Amino acid sequence: MRNKLIYIALTVLIILLATIFFVSHKRLRLNTVKQFERKMENKESFVLVLGESFCDICQRYTKETLVPYVKKNGQKDLIVIYWDKAFDNDYDAFLAFLDKYGITNDYISPTTYYIKNGEFVDSFKDYRTLEELEKFIEKNK
């Protein structure tokens, strides 16, 4: 009887730990500029989302679209940068970043870009659903 209880307790513990591990690795993380630059230097294909932490639409887009996307696909091919966090609220540094990568100054928060082999190929501004984001990615692959 005691061995059976230990077996059940260990099984529950393993399931709990596996669940925690899975959930923690499927949540959205904000990225750094260095992570973005590394992908660009390596000529990778990925999605870049630029936004800001105090933007209501960015928060909604993150919660309703990006988090479900990451839960479904992981975050390997998704870079999310909130300029106020990545640039410590230095808007001039953010503008220099936009200029360095040829991102037009008609930037609206949030803006989603598809980067193919290190080159900007497509973008959309504002909120999109998960389905719209997935179609955007498929179209640009």
Q: Any overview of this molecule?
A:
The chain is of the alpha+beta class. It has one domain: Glutaredoxin. 53% of the residues lie in helices and 17% in strands. It has six helices and four strands; from the N terminus they run ααβαβααββα. A four-stranded mixed β-sheet has the order 2-1-3-4, with helices on both faces. A hairpin with a 2-residue loop joins strand 3 and strand 4 (119-125). Helix 3 (56-73) crosses helix 6. The longest helix is centred in the N-terminal third of the chain and has 23 residues, at 2-24. The radius of gyration is 19 Å and the shape is elongated. Mean pLDDT is 87; it is low at 20-25.
Question: Which key features would you list for this structure?
Answer:
single chain; 141 residues; alpha+beta; Glutaredoxin; 4-stranded mixed sheet; 6 helices; 17% strand; elongated
